[in-house]
Amino acid sequence: MSLLSNKSERSDLDSVAPMGYGATRTLERVSAAIGQLESAPIQFVAARDVPYGGLLLAVPALLAMGLLRDSAELYALPQGYYGLSSILLLLAMMALARVKCIEQLRYVAPGEWGNLLGLDRIPEVRTLRSKLAILNREKGRAARWNTELAKPWMGLAPEAEPMFYVDGHVRVYHGHGAQLPRHYVARQKLYLRATADYWINALDGQPFFYINQEIDHGLVQALRNEVVPWLENNVPSNAENQRRMEADPRVPRFTVVFDREGYSPDLFAELDQRQIAVLSYHRYPAEDWPVEEFQEQALVLSNGETVRLQLAERGTRAPNGLWMREVRKRTGDGHQVALISTNRSLPAGQLAVSLFARWAQENYFRYMRQHYALDRLVEFGSEAISETEVAVNPAWRTLHNDVRKHHAALRTARAQLAGRSLTAPISESEVTRYELRQGQQRDQVEQLQRELDELKRRRKTTPHHIPVKDLPEKDRFTRLLPERKHFIDTIKMISYRAETSMVGILRERMSRADDARCLLCQIYDLEADLIPDPATRTLIVKLHHLTQAAHDAALQHLCDQLNETETVFPDTEMRLRFQVGSS
C-alpha cells in the first residue's frame, strides 16, 4: 500500500505543522521530503490583490541581466521542494522590495509571496539559510559567477570607449565575531574595524565586479595586484576599439579612472607599457596656469546632461620621465583643478567629464547602502588570514602616530615662539620676563625637535610591514567569511542593473526624470491580480492603479515595453503579459 493510499492518511498529512503557514501543495511537499521530487513544479493559480505584485514586472529585466544565465552551470541544489530558479528569483525580489535581510522574511506573508513564484509559499528563514549554505560551500564560486556576469555587462556598449571607474568602499564591522584590521572611514572620519572592497563600475555608475581585501594596502597596490589583472583577463574584445588600436598605437586597450589616492608614476609607467591608460587627479600640481590658456567647451555627460567647462591642456613629465597629459578645469572663482592621463587619444573634454563624473560611482555606493543594505552582514563567522599575508607593523604604526603628534606639537611651539613680541612702553621687569619666556619656549622647541628626530630614526629602522604570522597575538587579524556575502552582493548587482534598465524606460514618459526610482519602488509595492491562462500559455499580471494618472501612463508605457520582450517565466511555458487596471 502506498504512503498516500487512503483519505485518512492524507488528512493527517495536511495538518502537519512543520509545513508552515500557507502550505497547500501537501503531496508534493511529502514527495520532496522522501526524495521523490526534483523540485516543485511552478504552477500559477488565479489570485486577486496579491501584495508586491509589481515585482513580477522585474522578471524580464532580471532575466535579461543574467540572473539565471550562468547560475545553472555553477550552482546546483539537491532534490527538494524549492529549486534553484525559485531561490534566485526570491532573493532578487527581496532586494528589489527592500527586504534588507533574510530574517525580515518572517514578517511577510509567505503564501502571498509564494503566488509571485508560482508556489504555495516561500521558504522559511531557516530553510532559505540552509539553501544558501549549500550554494556557498565552495570558496571563490561567487566571484566566478560575478565574473561570468560581468563579461556581457562590459560589452553592452561595444562602440564606447572602454573606461572603468575604480574606487574602494569600506564596510564597517560592529560585531565581535572577527578581529578585523582598522580602516579609515571617510564618511565618519574615524579609524574603525572594517573590510575594504574595490569596485569596478561603468561611467554611469552601474557595477561590474568587486574585489574584497581583508588587509588593505591601498588603492595603488589593489590596482597593481588585483583590479587591473582582473580587467586584463575579462574585458571583452571590442572590435571598434581593436580597429582604432591597430590604426593608432596611442589608443589604449582600456582606461582606468580613480581618485588621487591611486597616484603613482611608477604604476602609471607599468600600465602604459601594457597599453593600459590611467585617468586621475594630479596629486602635486604646480602653480596656476594663465587665464588666457583656458577655453570654454560644451560637453555631454554620460546621463545626457550638457555642461560648460573652462579647460586647458599641457604635456607634462612625471618624476620617472613618463610623459602624460595634464588637463585643468578653471572654476568660476578662479580655482584650478588638475587631472592627468596617459590616454593620448581622447579629447581633453572627454577626459575631463569622465573624471569629474566620478560622483556616479559615489552615488552608487550611497544608494546601495540605503536601499540594498550593501554593508549589512550576511553570514556570521570568521576564518584565519593566510600567514603569508603582510600587514602594517603595530610597532611602526605606534611610532608613526607619535611622529605625527610631535610634528603638530612642534608647529604649535614654533608658532608661539614667533608670535610673542613686546609692545611699547615696556619696563625692565617686563623685558626680563619676556626673555625668560622666550628662552623657555626655545628650550621646548629644541626638546621637541630632538624627540622628533629620535622618533623618526626609530621609525626608519622599524619594518613598515611584517608577515601576519609575526604579529603579536593581540594584534592578529581574522576575516569575515566572504563567500555568501559575494553571492548575495552579486544578486544585488543584478537587481540594481535590472532596476536601472526599468528606470530608463519610465523616464521616457516622466517630466521629472529624477523621480523615476521612487516611482519604481512604488510600482514594486503595487498589488496585482494574477490570471493564468493555460490555453494560451499566458500569465496575465493585472496591476492596480497608481495614485496619479501621469504615473499610470508611465506604468502603462513600462508594461508595453516589457510585453514586447515576450518573456516566459522560468521553468514554465507561461508567457508574462502585464496590464494596468482594467486595460
Chart the SSEs and their pairings:
Layout: H1 7-14, H2 26-33, E1 47-50, H3 59-64, H4 71-74, H5 84-96, H6 110-117, H7 125-135, H8 141-154, E2 163-172, E3 182-185, E4 190-201, E5 207-213, H9 219-234, H10 239-247, E6 254-257, H11 265-273, E7 276-281, E8 295-300, E9 306-317, E10 323-330, E11 336-341, H12 348-356, H13 359-371, E12 382-384, E13 390-392, H14 394-419, H15 428-461, E14 465-467, E15 478-480, H16 483-507, H17 516-524, E16 528-533, E17 538-543, H18 549-563, E18 575-580
Parallel strand pairs: 2-6, 6-7, 17-18
Antiparallel strand pairs: 1-16, 2-4, 3-4, 4-5, 7-11, 8-9, 9-10, 10-11, 12-15, 13-14, 16-17
3D architecture notes:
This protein is 41% helix and 19% strand. It has helices spanning 7-14, 26-33, 59-64, 71-74, 84-96, 110-117, 125-135, 141-154, 219-234, 239-247, 265-273, 348-356, 359-371, 394-419, 428-461, 483-507, 516-524, 549-563, and strands at 47-50, 163-172, 182-185, 190-201, 207-213, 254-257, 276-281, 295-300, 306-317, 323-330, 336-341, 382-384, 390-392, 465-467, 478-480, 528-533, 538-543, 575-580. Strands 2, 3, 4, 5, 6, 7, 8, 9, 10 and 11 form a ten-stranded mixed β-sheet that branches. A four-stranded mixed β-sheet has the order 1-16-17-18. Strand 16 (528-533) and strand 17 (538-543) form a beta hairpin. Helix 14 (394-419) runs antiparallel to helix 15 (428-461). The chain is globular, with a radius of gyration of 30 Å. 32% of the residues are buried.
